């Protein structure tokens, strides 16, 4: 009976404690010119350890910018730039964050996102390790690897 309780804890609770939530920007519509990102963001709670997942195609990209550049749709001073169609951006510290599409006039037509990240930053947390992973596929693989490792530890401990 004790083995079953430990197994269930490791299997279901431990991964939840170690990893934040992935927020798919724009939901099923993804990062596109047709998105209403203010409405989408207002329905979310963003926390340190979570990730923003941008899914997009075409000429789109993602720039992390300052508040002033966000408000003025200035894409020339990007703090970070992402390309490639899918990006998982870790939310590693609390505060306001601003994102715009760098394609000409896309920000002006609403392809921009402002969020407030809640929580505190602790460099020793597992989410700090997760933030080193470049995309959603490796995050899933990392989660599965962690679960297998924890499962093996339970067997060693119980054996």
Automatic annotation (TrEMBL):
GO cellular-component term (any): plasma membrane
Superkingdom of the source species: Eukaryota
Keywords, in A-Z order: Glycoprotein, Membrane, Metal-binding, Signal, Transmembrane, Transmembrane helix
InterPro entries reported for this sequence: Cupredoxin, Phytocyanin-like, Phytocyanin_dom
Domain Phytocyanin positions: 21-119
Residues that span the membrane, as ranges: 136-158
Signal peptide range: 1-20
One term of GO molecular function: metal ion binding
Pfam family, one: Cu_bind_like
Name listed for the protein in its UniProt record: Phytocyanin domain-containing protein
Organism: Solanum verrucosum
Lineage of origin: Eukaryota, Viridiplantae, Streptophyta, Embryophyta, Tracheophyta
